[in-house]
Amino acid sequence: MRILITNDDGINAPGLRVLHAIAEEIAGPDGEVWTVAPAFEQSGVGHCISYTHPTMIAELGPRRYAAEGSPADCVLAGLHDVLAETRPDLVLSGVNRGNNAAENTLYSGTIGGAMEAALQGLPAIALSQFIGPGTEGLETPFEAAAVHGAGVVRALLDNGHWDAGPYRTFYNVNFPPCGAAEVKGTRVTAQGFRDYTTFSVEPHKSPSGRRFLWIKGGAQHGPTGPGTDVTANVEGYVSVTPMRADLTAHDLLADLRSKLE
Questions:
Q1: Is residue 8 a known part of a binding site?
Q2: Does the pLDDT value for residue 216 go beyond 90?
Q3: Which end of the chain has the lower number of beta carbons within 10 A, N or C?
């Protein structure tokens, strides 16, 4: 199996090393793992593509490339340049440092990389490690992902729905904020919503008197309702959420047509 990996934390991020090990286990001794990841951190860029300026790409080593762009740019570079003649069988994005559950999903560059791969017609999985009090004393906060990641990916490859529709299914996996031994299992979940917090801004003044705004997150560890991703994670389960890029509110179409057409 040939696997392309990317992330949004950057080419030198420890989570990418964890993902590389997961991908090597999945690819097997006769497989290949190729890396095309952002040269610098791209957290929070979502599904952004660098449509108005070129993206520099550099080969850092065998099957290892850095691109000055977003995770979606990296997937495009991997598919149409680096691996243009040898299309990969699977794209993995992550392992992100921090959860990409609930509304975080909408901002996530990790998700953006997997989404772009799905739009390009490839199986894709995004993987993220929830960080919290349960990961603070660990040698690495990625322990749960490192130990359980390959098993979850293999289970999805064997049992997931890999449709070939115009908006192909991809998967969002979040590992709970605990050690590997404390992981209770896997739950298939819906995307939750944290109704107790939102992103906001915090103003600051520089020494020169100029005014700047820092984007500020909120609380992450409250549950998001039964059957949803954050609830599963904070209860010690790996969450697996099937996703598509189609943003249509299908449940509203019939009613709206009856009133507007």
A1: yes
A2: yes
A3: C
